[in-house]
């Protein structure tokens, strides 16, 4: 038995990460939020994904809000057009397609005053490198590692957004804050 309830949109919503790229898909008729699942209704069917038990019980909204506030106070390390970054991320996804998910690490680095970031993925079979022009000169040298297996759906989604710019803020020991103006994502540092 199901019950249809029309209510105000909640302040926070647990959207399963692998559904994020499909939020921009054409033909979505309705979005359904159930207690344990999230579903996108199309004319031809439904794509659904369960909401993890961890997200259902005790999702740390306050901690995430605090991390976002801290990240916004940190230096913006680079800005890049999301569609260009998405294209490179998709290519890395193809490069890494046959590797284990735990090997899907992409290193990103830049030197002070550069106008581009360098992306690199190392596998036993080889090393893949790309360069990507950023929106302004890099203010300080940095190196970081991102888990592409988790972030690729987000980058794919952002690549479909018109005129979207991805800003990346972080300090020496803070998580990475990725923002687009409407979206905030915290990426934890590797230990």
Please describe the topology of this protein:
Layout: E1 28-33, E2 37-42, E3 45-50, H1 53-56, H2 61-73, E4 76-81, H3 82-95, E5 105-110, E6 116-123, E7 126-133, E8 142-147, H4 148-159, E9 165-169, E10 176-179, E11 184-187
Antiparallel strand pairs: 1-2, 2-3, 4-9, 5-6, 5-8, 6-7, 9-10, 10-11
Helix pairs in contact: 3-4
Number of strands: 11
Largest beta-sheet details? 4 strands, antiparallel
Class from secondary-structure proportions: alpha+beta
Shape: globular
Unreliable parts: none
SSE order: EEEHHEHEEEEHEEE
Report on this model:
- The structure is a single chain.
- By secondary structure, the chain is α+β, with helices and mostly antiparallel strands.
- It contains four helices and eleven strands, in the order βββααβαββββαβββ.
- The chain has helices spanning 53-56, 61-73, 82-95, 148-159, and strands at 28-33, 37-42, 45-50, 76-81, 105-110, 116-123, 126-133, 142-147, 165-169, 176-179, 184-187.
- The strands form three sheets. A four-stranded antiparallel β-sheet has the order 4-9-10-11.
- A hairpin with a 6-residue loop joins strand 9 (165-169) and strand 10.
- Helix 3 (82-95) packs across helix 4.
- The longest helix has 14 residues, at 82-95.
- The termini are far apart.
């Amino acid at each position: 038995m199901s019950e249809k309830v029309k209510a105000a949109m909640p302040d926070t919503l647990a959207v399963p990460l692998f559904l994020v790229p499909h939020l921009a898909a054409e033909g979505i008729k309705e979005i359904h939020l159930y207690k344990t699942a999230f579903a996108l209704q199309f004319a031809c069917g439904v794509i659904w994904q369960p909401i993890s038990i961890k997200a259902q019980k005790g999702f740390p909204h306050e901690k995430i809000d605090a991390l976002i506030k801290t990240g916004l106070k940190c230096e913006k390390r680079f800005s890049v057009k999301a569609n260009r970054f998405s294209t490179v991320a998709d290519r890395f996804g193809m490069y890494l397609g046959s590797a284990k998910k735990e090997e899907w690490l992409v290193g990103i680095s830049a030197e002070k005053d550069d106008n581009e970031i360098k992306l690199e993925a190392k596998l036993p079979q080889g090393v893949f490198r790309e360069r990507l022009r950023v929106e302004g000169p890099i203010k300080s040298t940095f190196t970081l590692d991102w888990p592409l297996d988790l972030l690729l759906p987000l980058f794919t989604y952002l690549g479909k957004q018109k005129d979207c710019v991805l800003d990346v803020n972080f300090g020496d020991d803070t998580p990475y804050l990725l923002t687009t103006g409407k979206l905030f994502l915290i990426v934890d540092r590797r230990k």
